[in-house]
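Reopening this ticket.

The earlier resolution said the output was attached, but the attachment link was broken on my side. Pasting everything inline this time so it's all in one place.
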Amino acid sequence: MSEQPSPTAAAIGRAVREERTRRQLSTRALATAAGVSQPFLTNVENGRVMPSIASLYSLAGALGVSAAALLPEQPIRLEVVRAGGGSRIPMRDSDGETYTQLIAGARGRQLGAYRFELTPGYEDVTYAHDGEDIVHVLSGSLIYRYADHDDVELHPGDTLWVDARGEHSWVVPAAQRGMTELLLITAAGATHRHGSGSETGTEPATSTQR
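Inline output:
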């Protein structure tokens, strides 16, 4: 029996298709503008795959909307995610990294909360967006790169705040033994853009819910 698409993936797919149709774009035109393949875009619109964080930002940018505008609305006023909960989502197809969406930065919300588990040597693409970011390192170490500021090395228990309008990214030291786990609190509804020298979004093969 084939796996049923997740409600979140289906909602994102509908939002992408509606925005594309409203702008009178073909799937080929949108895929080209977002730097993803046309079959991947079709799978996203049909709710068959969950786009990675990079792909979601790329699609949103090509459509001229915020990434949060493509997420389902969350009308509830209180939400609890128990230990081990949340949705595990691929970051980039090329490296198999994932992050866990704890509290979705959806429409109608000011913040989103995400947990990342990163392998040694992992290097993120460069982003800039409206709002603020807070990074709290739970385990391992992290090198945070921000605009023209000197690199900041973070260790377990360290917390960093940034004005997210500056280009920023992070790197896990390659010589480190074990994973780096961190918590990211970021602005919902912000329009993300890739910084200079960053890659375009890539396609995940599957999505995993837990």
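Reporter confirms the inline version is readable. The two ends are 19 Å apart (CA to CA). The first strand starts at residue 87 and ends at 90.
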